[in-house]
Amino acid sequence: MSEDQHRGGTETVERTERKTQEPDLYRVVLLNDDYTTMDFVIHVLEEVFHKSPAEAYRIMMLVHTQDRGIAGHYPYEVAETKVTTVVDSARAAGFPLQATMEKA
Ligand code: TYC
After folding, report:
1. Mutational test site, ligand 1, from 60, 65, 67, 100, max ligand atoms within 8 Å of CB
2. 23-103: CATH topology
3. Cα–Cα dist 103/28, whole Å
4. CA-CA distance, 43 to 18, in Å (whole number)?
5. Of all protein residues, whose CA lies closest to atom 2 belonging to ligand 1?
6. What band does 6 get if pLDDT is binned at 50, 70 and 90?
């Protein structure tokens, strides 16, 4: 028995936090437009967001019919880089495709 317990004192128990903190996540959202081709959006979803062809088609059609759709959830800087990659590659291909990020 410790000195504190023996004398009826209080004891502070310190424990090192073992769980690693999960980072805040951000949704990367693709927006619909009338000019970007469906094939280009599918290509972006496969190459930038690593979606399967079936999942890429599903998300593209969701954006096409609902005006927006989530491409994925990422930590802040990853989401930022993906938005830049999408917009830059769309511009390079001559498309107005837009992507944004928002806190999940
Ligand atoms: N609406 C476009 C078309 O009809 C296709 C499209 C889908 C564009 C998703 C952007 O994020 C988008 N060609």
Report:
1. 60
2. Ribosomal Protein L30; Chain: A, (3.30.1390)
3. 9
4. 40
5. 34
6. very low
67 secondary structure, DSSP code:
S
Do residues 12 and 88 lie in contact, with contact meaning Cβ atoms separated by under 8 Å?
no
Q: What is the pTM of this model?
A: 0.84
* Integer Cα distance of 49 and 37 in angstroms: 17
Adjacent-strand bridge partners of 75: 25
Confidence of residue 71 (pLDDT cuts 50, 70, 90): very high
Query: How sure is the predictor about 17, in pLDDT bands with cuts at 50, 70 and 90?
Result: low
Does an H or E element contain 100, and which?
strand 98-103
17 Cα–ligand 1 center, Å: 46
Residue 79 Cα to ligand 1 middle (Å):
21
Q: What CA dihedral angle connects 33, 71, 74 and 19, to 10 degrees?
A: 150
**Domain edges within the chain:** 23-103
